[in-house]
UniProtKB/TrEMBL annotation:
Coiled coil: none annotated. GO terms for molecular function: DNA binding; zinc ion binding. SMART domains: Fungal_trans (SM00906). This is Xylanolytic transcriptional activator regulatory domain-containing protein. GO terms for biological process: DNA-templated transcription. It comes from the Eukaryota. Keywords: Nucleus. Residues 123-198 form the Xylanolytic transcriptional activator regulatory domain. The keyword Nucleus applies. The lineage of its organism: Eukaryota, Fungi, Dikarya, Ascomycota, Pezizomycotina. CDD domains: fungal_TF_MHR. It comes from Amniculicola lignicola CBS 123094.
Amino acid sequence: MDAEDLEYLKSKGCFSLPSESGDLVKAYFQFVHPSFPVIDGPSFLRDYTAGGLESINLLLLWSMFSASASYVALPDRRVVKESYVYKAKLLFDLSQENDKIVLVQSALLLSFWFADTEDVKQSWYWTSIAFGIAQTLGLHREFKSSNGQIPSQQQRLWRNVWWCCMIRDVWLAFGMGRPLRINTPGCNCHEPLDSDCL
């Protein structure tokens, strides 16, 4: 990242985490994660316990906060949520994130934000990005590793991320009265097991 972009992100507060960060993480795992396990919960909590918030990907963290802020007592919640979304969007656009799974996870979490009931294009936009990257990565297909190169933990995460894409597609199609965008006959990724969704 060039110095100008770095300074811009700093001036917009992208590197200054909110004082309620601990409450936001707790709310995420209490309210968001059980029904939408788009991140690897055990790995996140292990890294968080060992190194605090500094050990967590910043883009993913702001995206998580944008989803969990609905469940935390905040003054002027809507404005605060909007600021979290704004910071995540800036990082998404400027940080040149190399981890494509983080991009999919963040886009899916950002798809939960809309300013009002008329503002549905944000959800549609972010899920389009998530679905496109996920399918480019081949998450919609069963992955086979004949020589054991893909660790089982990574396979579980990929499977969960893909099924979160599927769930989000159904939710939005139903809520917006639009057709599904994911072509399910072209997908053969197995459903996650209960043990995958920790």
